[in-house]
Amino acid sequence: MAIDRSGERAALDAEVEDTQGTIAKLREAADGTPPGHGSRVALKRAEEKLAELVKHITRRDQTG
């Protein structure tokens, strides 16, 4: 029995879009703030999350 991964991919794509929206908002909030400010820390975490999501999608697409 084949595994249907289209739902998993759709969920990952939705999470990527959500994270990209969050990053856009955090960039606006972080603009002009000093290093170490909470919005900059949150932005860094969101960017790291996005990188992990993209890595997971890429790995998943390569393995099928």
Topology (elements, then pairings):
Layout lengths: L5 H25 L7 H26 L1
What does this structure look like?
- The protein is mostly helical.
- It contains two helices and no strands.
- The protein has helices at residues 6-30, 38-63.
- Helix 1 (6-30) packs antiparallel against helix 2.
**Strand residues, percent:** under 5%
State the major sheet: none
**Radius of gyration, CA atoms, in whole angstroms:** 15 Å
Termini separation: 15 Å
Brief digest:
The chain is mainly alpha-helical.
State the main characteristics.
mainly alpha, 64 residues
